Fold:
Amino acid sequence: MITVRHLNKYYIGEDGKKVDVLRDVSCEISRGEIISIIGPSGSGKSTFLHILNMLDTPNSGEIIVNGKNIQDKGYDLNKMREKMGMVFQNFNLFEHLTVLQNVTLAPIKLRGLGEKQAEDEAMEMLRKVGMADRSGSMPSQLSGGQKQRVAIARCLAMKPDVILFDEPTSALDPTMIGEVQGVIRSLAMEKMTMLIVTHEMKFARDVSTRVFFMNEGVIYEDGTPEQIFQNPKRAATRAFVHRIRSLVFDIVSRDFDFYDMTTQIKQFCIRYSIPEKMNDITHIVEEMLILLSKYDSPVLIEVNHSEMDYTSSVSILHRGESVSPLERPDADELSVMIIRGMSSDIKTEQTDEGVRLTFRI
Structure:
């Protein structure tokens, strides 16, 4: 379907030095594949998608789509883009048009559909993304997640053969990420060919048939989700997928904003696709704070999540203390019972700073 050969992209910086963005990138993309593109910031992921859609031009290399080089003189890029849709980070909806008008505009102007047929097909696409009841709304009346779903419907209305998603959830509030991922999952079940630049590792692991790990402008490793996430062959891939996501709270005063802490924990769980662990994590933290409330010692709380093995933990350092608050004779029995019930394992260790408890969830 798409063949990329020896693609290179570079810029000349203000100091006159060459800055490589893509270096000799080659790959084959077959119909029906769902490819997640992961990697550190600045590794060329978004540039790669933009060049596939010819929103940016390479310095050298070939892009062959259905047997034709899209850089050849006379090649109709507009026709190609009708079949290679793109969904951006920031929605790019027309603010002066309704949802329905945003979705019908391109089919009427580019596909030559009549207004009635365009509206019927647009409503079908809006139903697919759960936005049919907002067809008369203006973009300013929608949440970020709703705008992105409309952007996906607008792309689908062009009947594309492949969709390029450029970090489709990066501009969203964490509470809205799931609704957009749900739409992409449904497209994956329909075998829509997709390339998805994403920082959401669990999502990439679950939805993809193939994963590109990009690093320093090259496809550093290419394999199945199982290979990339469970048995990566190269050191940089292992380092990237083994990342630990952390949220840290240093509580030194009773005036600490505990309500904001709870909100941040919930957003953390949604952001890293562990909403099912949100209840246990927040309850362990809250019940531990109840146990510690009778002491004036400062507390350091860390919420950790491993994107490699999908394990999560809460670490609580009670500074200046040597006895676990769970073991004190005056500990609230109900709080202790709740904490133990929500933890699959509890590790206690004495450190130079105090006693640390780690709760595995």
Remarks:
- The chain is about 35% helix and 25% strand.
- The two ends are 43 Å apart (CA to CA).
